[in-house]
Design a protein that fits this description.
The chain is α/β, with parallel strands linked by helices and about 280 residues long. It folds into two domains: about 5-85, RRM (RNA recognition motif) domain (Alpha-Beta Plaits, 2-Layer Sandwich), CATH 3.30.70.330; about 105-280, Vaccinia Virus protein VP39 (Rossmann fold). It has nine helices and 13 strands. The radius of gyration is 20 Å and the shape is globular. The N and C termini lie far apart (about 50 Å).
Length: about 280
């Protein structure tokens, strides 16, 4: 079996790179731009698979670059890309209960149920009791928060989408645990308080897969500005104990001063080595 040297550039330092890259004796080198370089020698099928999985992927504001030496033959590249496309069909599910309702936006942006449940469990373990969920959409995260026992205020400016959230909350029998607000996320951040402020700004299907900044995800910057202003005016931590955002994998964490990030991988076999989103903690 032919062996290739594979070099991956642009990995964020906070990423679980071994999970992304998969099997292999990887060597990791810190780069001057703050990213990490990974090098391994892989047999041809593994090298082609990695090249297919990481093609066009951006993480943390850097587009990954994959170099394979010697170059992969075309038939190996085609086979790997076909296999990757098939694998993507087995993705982590959105809602798992029958009867849920989604619009086109929710079908794209809904946090997969196992990942939403894991985040909710993490918040409970940290001592949180209440969540202000901004840009709540069809309710993927709000429902997970409520099922974990958190008090939830879900804010969504689209009345039709808020109605979807109400319906889905009834499907999961947590309608009574979620206060629904049809209104503006910025205003809610200015007026409300909670242990956790969570915001999932809409990405849409056409977000930049290479690099996405805070300004590409309204109203994220505006909400963060309001949170900082409240902390300055009333004493840090009074309004919100934690502020976290769900953002695309390509989000440039450096575009939010003081932010830290972690990558969330899929839970199904088809996306277990794929970063589904970043959870960014602010402040």
């Amino acid at each position: 079996m032919r062996v290739h040297e594979v070099v991956v550039e642009g990995l964020p330092v906070w990423l679980d790179a071994a999970r992304l890259l998969g099997d292999g004796e990887w060597r990791f080198n810190a780069r001057s731009d703050g990213t990490v370089q990974a090098i391994a020698r892989l047999e041809q099928p593994a090298a082609a698979d990695l090249d297919a999985r990481l093609r066009g992927v951006g993480l943390g504001g850097h587009k990954l670059a994959v170099r394979v030496v010697p170059a992969l033959p075309r038939d190996a590249v085609r086979a790997a890309r076909t296999a990757d496309a098939r694998r993507r069909r087995d993705a982590t599910p959105g809602f798992t209960r029958r009867g849920n309702q989604l619009d086109d936006e929710a079908r794209i942006s809904l946090t997969p149920e196992p990942l939403a449940d894991a985040l909710a469990a993490e918040l409970v373990a940290s001592g949180a009791h209440s969540v202000l969920d901004l840009c709540a959409g069809a309710g993927g995260n709000a429902i997970a928060f409520a099922r974990a026992g958190l008090r939830v205020v879900a804010v969504e400016r689209d009345a039709a989408r808020l109605a979807l959230l109400a319906h889905n909350a009834r499907v999961y029998a947590v309608d009574a645990q979620i206060e629904r607000v049809c209104g503006d996320a910025i205003e809610a951040a200015r007026e409300r308080s909670a242990d956790v402020l969570f915001i999932d700004p809409p990405w849409g299907a056409d977000y930049d897969r290479a690099r996405t900044s805070v300004d590409a995800l309204p109203p994220l910057r505006e909400v963060l500005d309001v949170v900082r202003a409240r902390a300055t005016e009333r004493g840090k931590g009074e309004a919100f104990g934690r502020v976290i955002a769900k953002v695309p994998p390509s989000f440039d964490v450096a575009s939010v001063p003081g932010a830290t990030a972690r990558a969330v991988f899929g839970a199904a076999s088809g996306d277990a080595r794929r970063v589904k989103m970043l959870i960014v903690a602010v402040g």
